[in-house]
Design goal:
Layout: E1 2-5, E2 13-16, H1 25-38, E3 40-43, H2 50-58, E4 62-63, E5 80-83, E6 86-87, E7 90-91, E8 114-121, E9 128-133, H3 134-139, H4 143-149, E10 153-156, H5 173-183, E11 187-190, E12 192-194, E13 201-203, E14 210-214, H6 225-233, E15 245-249, E16 255-259, E17 263-267, E18 277-284
Parallel strand pairs: 2-3
Antiparallel strand pairs: 1-2, 3-16, 4-18, 5-18, 6-7, 8-16, 8-18, 9-15, 9-17, 10-11, 10-14, 12-13
The structure holds (3~{R})-3-(2-hydroxy-2-oxoethylamino)butanoic acid and fe (iii) ion.
(3~{R})-3-(2-hydroxy-2-oxoethylamino)butanoic acid binds near residues 97, 104, 105, 158 and 163.
Length: about 300
Amino acid sequence: MEVSRSSGGGIGMQIHQFDASTATDEDFVTIAKTVYTEKIVVLKNQNLTPHGFVELGRRFGRPEPYYESMYHHPTDANIFVSGNLQNAGRSVGVPKTGQFWHADYQFMKRPFGLTLVYPQILPRTNRGTYFIDMGRAYERLTAGRRAAIAGTRSLHSVRDYFKIRPTDVHRPIVDVLRDIERVTPPVSHPTTFQHPVTGETILYHSEGFTFAMTDGTGHRTGDDLLGRLLEETGQLDRSFRHGNIHLQVYESGDLIIWDNRSLIHRALHNPSAEPAVSYRVTVHDEHPFYSGIDG
Ligand code: 7UC
Ligand code: FE
């Protein structure tokens, strides 16, 4: 196993000569530590079956299948499929997922610590994901802004990006909306928390899922604090040139593991009908998402 810094001046490390079938427990500890400190690790030249990918995920924590079954891989529900292929007239997975700034499962009570993504079919162009390290973004806020968000909480919901399911066709939209609120009611998380491994302060906030903020007394914050944070962290920059934004470009055989506490991400999708398929496994690691989350 050879660990080196990924080229291009962005964030993250790459690992060559990693073979899941011979890797030691120590190797997995090294990889996990590297994900927490460097935020992105790319295992190069991987050749895994769907089952092998899930087993690799298990070495980092407990996989949780996505709550909506239309995303599930046909042979293993632990795999979330993003893709535009049809199999016998039925689509496999869901096309154009995650094309908005978010952290995975941020709208749930217990988000995942780690996300693993393993592209299966890469288009010729637009092969990648944008990332923002929200620990670094927090550090770059003004002292005044950091003081303004201290002690606040942020409310998150999937409602703006929930995708219509095959079974929703011909249903009244109000019934679909009621389902979303019943199954995934808004959740509240602290706007900032300490990363349980690195101790960094993480700004847990995204354009896709965060819809409101409350102060220490439970009242909505004023001054468009939410919008200002989105602006200052780079999430409203549609040129994607903001200094906080990192574009991770994928090569065939890459398996990407990232820290889903620290990073928010936004998928890059090809507007053409070119085939594209990516597998994802998300795991709960051994650390609480943040201290006090269950209490
Ligand atoms: O289809 C999608 O973009 C899925 C998104 C709403 N949720 C991904 C997640 O893990 O939070
Ligand atoms: Fe995502």
